[in-house]
Amino acid sequence: MNQPEQSSILYGRKITVECPATVANLVCGFDILGMALKDPQDLIEMSVSDQPGIRISHADGYDLPTDPAQNVAGAALLDLMQGVEESVGFDLTITKLIKPGSGLGSSAASSAGAVVAANQLLGNRFSQKDLVRFAMAGEKVASGVKHADNIAPCIMGGITLIRSIFPLDIIQLSAPPMYVTVVHPQIEVRTSDARQILRKEVLLKDAIRQWGNIAGLVAGFLQKDYDLIGRSLEDVIIEPVRSILIPGFDEVKKASREAGALGGGISGSGPSIFMLSREAATAQNISVIMKDVYDSLGIDSKIYVTTLNNEGATIRNLT
Amino acid sequence: MNQPEQSSILYGRKITVECPATVANLVCGFDILGMALKDPQDLIEMSVSDQPGIRISHADGYDLPTDPAQNVAGAALLDLMQGVEESVGFDLTITKLIKPGSGLGSSAASSAGAVVAANQLLGNRFSQKDLVRFAMAGEKVASGVKHADNIAPCIMGGITLIRSIFPLDIIQLSAPPMYVTVVHPQIEVRTSDARQILRKEVLLKDAIRQWGNIAGLVAGFLQKDYDLIGRSLEDVIIEPVRSILIPGFDEVKKASREAGALGGGISGSGPSIFMLSREAATAQNISVIMKDVYDSLGIDSKIYVTTLNNEGATIRNLT
């Protein structure tokens, strides 16, 4: 971390940051892979002052906590402020468009967006890796675990590999252009429940199959080999257990593959399901398929047809 | 498979093929990764005739079987001949320089070399993937398992990923130039014993750490990032169990890392140990370290300082 002069702090300015939704796990990459989406995105407006403290307000209807220690953005900022010598405070307004509990990295968007905004207002003194670390304190509030598989792509954009959490080792993986279709069935799956139903031990032969797929997926991204990406999007460990919590999962997956999706699966711990496609038309067709499945099950659903987002959290404006 | 004319068979010609040693697993890639070495290499001399049958002789002192069904090269050729309509036979002489039981893919070199040689003599009618499949029949004779993590790099060269065995899916991974130091302590570790001591179940948290490393290693190769390769060469599942069978393993690994090795570990199921280095001088220094460790333990050892082999099994001459 640099120690720039105090004058680099942008007192009296107001920044608006767009914080993208993210898909963690990417089927076979449980706890290590994540991908940023163009849509949906949260917005965070923030200003910095010499009045210590973090004051949070919400411009949405989700009734999230405003106490900084209980709020994911607040917890991330509290962690960041431990690295700030000057006596400063932040005022922020969060507009959530990524529904909490959707499995699309809603908490990560708030934590990541808050530290990206704060870093700009503080004269850009922290590295992206520092920001990931601060934002992980927000994830701890949200799910009890300091995971980075939503945070890293939200801050850095594109597809990220978390090779290791302790020590933190993040690798950005370039990938070919891809369309992403997401359905968020309006049911609740708690991250903590989704974790609890996982077995603590797995068969070695399943683990070997999984790491073959992970290796294939990483090679597919870097070699821009769509077929290999498709063949590697297989999860023999987590999905068979977690998909039980998501009605319609098998139908969505089967029909999407038949319609030409490269593949896909549960987004994070669900209930959202994502599918990757090479062509925009395929992604559109899949959105209709997804809607039909949930309509026929009598479950409301929200659909997004979007693309991979290579920028990550970005400054919409700074006034 | 093509069905070319019978006239494409090179009756009366004699081919000599060099069949390289290979390192399977590459630390964290158990059962999915393999790498070809420049040295050591076996030699196979072969001719084809219209006299059916496979006649094997050995020009080395290893007293390996000559019955085709019991010999790894013979078993591979028997499998290949099921795809040949013409009535042909092969005469071959095998000179093994890769010691059986070294963990350096000795059986794979014979199986792979035999089918590469035969394919040339038959007018190149089979694909590399066909050849891998035939040669796997040889591995079945050697170890009871049709694995491809030595066969694939031996035939294709470089570093190969076996994403899946059924169906067979082989991906070639480009990698930056690397030096390889190998020590073969003259002790016996049976592949079957090395497999039996592995637990059938592994902790999910260990599997996650392993697939983070595999993803990192694949990304490191493809992005030509030596540091990332080094950080990813960690095995929390297989090595802690198997290294117990190899005296001196921990010392060799620790001292090699200290001398600047990127990393390394058990070659295949052992007892050979390999270390990757970026510089030739480092690889040389490590060879001295390895020799010293085994000299001090009173165990004979054979050392190779070599490089990654991007060609795989190659034709030395065709007369």
TrEMBL record, chains A, B:
Function comment: Catalyzes the ATP-dependent phosphorylation of L-homoserine to L-homoserine phosphate.
Lineage top rank: taxon: Bacteria
Family indicated by similarity: Belongs to the GHMP kinase family. Homoserine kinase subfamily.
Annotated ranges, domain GHMP kinase C-terminal: 218-294
KW Nucleus (keyword) present: no
Name of the protein: Homoserine kinase
Subcellular location, record wording: Cytoplasm
EC number of this enzyme: 2.7.1.39
Gene Ontology terms for molecular function: kinase activity
HAMAP family: Homoser_kinase
Organism: Flavihumibacter stibioxidans
Keywords: Amino-acid biosynthesis, ATP-binding, Cytoplasm, Kinase, Nucleotide-binding, Threonine biosynthesis, Transferase
Domain GHMP kinase N-terminal: from-to ranges: 77-158
Residues involved in ATP binding: 99-109
Pfam families, alphabetized: GHMP_kinases_C (PF08544), GHMP_kinases_N (PF00288)
